[in-house]
Design a protein that fits this description.
It contains six helices and 16 strands. By secondary structure, the protein is α+β, with helices and mostly antiparallel strands. It folds into two domains: about 5-165 and about 345-350, Diaminopimelate Epimerase, Chain A, domain 1 (Roll); about 180-330, Diaminopimelate Epimerase, Chain A, domain 1. The protein has an eight-stranded mixed β-barrel. Strand 12 (about 250-255) and strand 13 (about 260-265) form a beta hairpin. It is globular.
Length: about 375
């Protein structure tokens, strides 16, 4: 190829993330070719992603690939891709519940699902895991309306609410089969309610759990302990070798400070999230309700109702969460729902970096920025 190609693209904010949304038909069908194109679209590898759409952070270097679904229980398929900014890697090993918030509106905008006169519900199959979700949002007059008074922490201003319901999954809520595990002397609870997550008492790692994300990232002793813990937990959770994967997520738990159920600091997997992912919060909320789990002594759960408020570095996220039990008496997720917002930022054509342009070398530690 001698020059850049044109690709139809919509840039959207979904929840507290931002990503490029594509129809599957507008991208190469071969995964290797698709990923190579997306690296050039996002400007990777480059710590600034200066030559592409990416925002030089895991929360703003994301891609959604949407297509009509052949599954009778879904209207559209949604494939989430995490595009690394510091290396030439595209991963499909996890879902993203924040980017999910924009999938329904995008499907209507692209004509995959007809809009209702007042509201529209889109049934979504999350290709990464095979799980399902239903997103409901306002479409007055048959057009997506992004304006509204719903506010979520980590996003300035307000927008129209996108209500996302997650039906109970078929997988184990406790992937290891145990309420608690002890890894390198650290008690943890491994839970998967849409996102494989390891719950860890912050105090067990000699931190408070109230630190700023950057301070936690710069704690090299903590980083080393978290890495080893994640590698071991990944194997226990049936995920295999996770050294080159973004899952499982690690969430540090501390008692709440601002009226919520618990305070969290989540690693994704190396950077500390400035808020918390939707599916990660769903797993945390479910994990807090597991009797005997590591969050049981830390969380202040409401006396009634399903709503659990998860505190994070920039505010909170409310999750509707309830548990049941299976035939063996083990806890299972019964209901999970969340309110998010999304906004279309631009809709048009993106021009990927030419293949004739060599990628920038990897950044040198301590070098100029």
């Amino acid at each position: 190829m001698t020059g850049p190609v044109e690709v139809r693209c919509m840039l959207m904010r979904g929840g507290t993330s931002k990503g490029a949304y594509f129809l599957a038909e507008d991208l190469p069908a071969e995964p290797a070719l698709r990923d190579e194109l997306l690296l050039r679209v996002m400007g990777s590898p480059d710590e600034r992603q200066i030559d592409g759409l990416g925002g030089a952070h895991p929360l703003s270097s994301k891609v959604a690939v949407v297509s009509p679904s052949s599954d009778p229980d879904a209207d559209v398929d949604y494939l989430f891709l995490q595009v690394a900014f510091d290396r030439p890697k595209v991963s499909d090993r996890q879902n993203c519940g924040n980017i999910l918030a924009g999938v329904g509106p995008f499907a209507v905008e692209r004509g995959l699902v007809p809009a209702g006169e007042e509201r529209t519900s889109v049934r979504i199959r999350m290709v990464n895991t095979g799980d399902f979700a239903a997103a409901t949002f306002p479409t007055p007059g048959g057009r997506v309306d992004y304006t509204g008074d719903a506010e979520i922490s980590g996003v300035p201003g307000s927008a129209a609410p996108v209500v996302i319901e997650f039906p109970p999954g078929t997988g184990k809520l406790l992937p290891t089969g145990n309420v608690r595990e002890v890894i390198d002397g650290i008690p943890v609870t491994c839970v998967d309610n849409g996102m494989p997550t390891v719950l860890i008492p912050a105090a067990a790692l000699d931190v408070t759990g109230y630190e700023a994300p950057r301070d936690l990232e710069e704690n090299l002793v903590l980083a080393g302990r978290l890495r080893e813990l994640r590698l071991t937990a990944g194997k226990l959770m049936g995920l295999g070798d996770v050294s080159d994967s973004t899952v499982p997520k690690l969430t540090l738990l501390a008692p709440p400070r601002d009226g919520g159920a618990v305070t969290t600091r989540t690693f994704i997997p190396v950077r500390c999230h400035t808020s918390i992912g939707v599916l990660g919060a769903a797993s945390v909320a479910a994990g807090l309700r597991v009797e005997g789990g590591v969050g049981a002594d830390l969380a202040e759960l409401p006396a009634d109702g399903d709503r659990v408020r998860i505190e994070h570095p920039t505010g909170f996220l409310d999750i509707e969460s309830s548990l049941g039990t299976d035939s063996a008496g083990l806890p299972t997720a019964r209901r999970t729902a969340v309110v998010r917002t999304a906004r279309k930022i631009f809709d048009g054509t993106v021009f990927p970096r030419s293949t004739e342009t060599a990628p920038l070398p990897a950044p040198t530690p301590g070098g100029a920025r």
